[in-house]
Design a protein that fits this description.
Blueprint: E1 7-11, E2 14-21, E3 24-34, E4 40-43, H1 51-72
Antiparallel strand pairs: 1-2, 2-3, 3-4
């Protein structure tokens, strides 16, 4: 994987980060929140209220990857 993501999708507190590894893509899905010190951190745990934005981010990530694959052929 490269040091920089290929693309990011953010909806609310949910982010899909897409990584390109020599043409093969992987996706990290995370939720941002502030910890007890007030710093923003990310987790892979989600609440029920996060699920719709999680699904939308995953769908947009899938569309972006599909578009990338189609433009390379």
């Amino acid at each position: 994987m490269s040091n920089q993501p290929a693309f990011k999708v953010k909806i609310g507190l949910i982010t899909a980060t897409i990584w390109n590894n020599d043409g093969s893509y992987s996706v990290d899905l995370t939720r941002a929140y502030k910890n007890s010190e007030g710093a923003w951190v990310h987790t892979s745990g989600f609440f029920h209220s996060d699920l719709l934005n999680l699904a939308k981010c995953a769908e947009r990530a899938e569309r972006w990857i599909t578009h990338q694959s189609q433009t390379r052929t």
